[in-house]
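Below is a complete specimen:
___
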Amino acid sequence: MTDDGTVTTSRADGVLHVTLDRPSRRNSLSPPMVAAFVDALTDAATDDSLRAVHIRGGGNDFCAGVDWVSANSGDRPRTGDLVRRVPHGAHRVIELVHSIHLPVVCSVRGWAAGLGCNLALAADFTVAGADAVFWEPFLDRGFSPDSGSSWLLPRLVGLARAKSMLLLGEKVSGSDAADWGLIHRCVDDSEVDDIAAELLARLAAGPTVAIGLAKQAIHYGQHATLPQTMDQELFNLELSCRTKDFKEGLAAFREKRAPEFGGR
């Protein structure tokens, strides 16, 4: 019987937990899993009850990327198949994680390879265990990088380290990834769940609309001039100042108390 794996979701306290569940294959993503992953993130993007997204792997690993054997089994695909298929699969996953107006946290243990590595890089915060390994194995397999690696890595760690990972296939430990600024934090394996939970609770209690707009502005500024970025910030400020959370923030400041944001 073929193990295609599953992508399961659950909700608690405004957080959508997405679990990549195929531990027998280090959570490598089969085509059905990629489709389910895209659907889960697409639904989350328009769900006003959510305030954060948590992505994790089942078992001992985070995600070993796309299962290319499964994705390319059967008859030889016709020319152009990748050009048609990948933008709606692996690339769409990265695009959604990067652009969704909710903070995204990844918990990483074990392998984060290929798409799994890029997924961790595209998240807003990635907490990794000391046993984590970040790897871009594309050229080791004979094909060029995809799923945003050539865009994400140079921006996060610079050209020299990006080339080491992409052209030489060098593996990066969780501690080095944190030291390089590739991820948010590296902790003991036993602490990953607790640290991620604390981070998610903090984000889910924040001003959700303003967080989403701030995330959008940060990404916009990566390819815009300073004046263009400040113009974008003005539009975002206009929107965030119309929220209930903005009013609550001002009231809390006047009353010298901690704000109680509702995500509205």
Observations:
- Strands lie at 6-12, 15-21, 52-57, 104-108, 111-113, 125-129, 133-135, 172-173, 185-187.
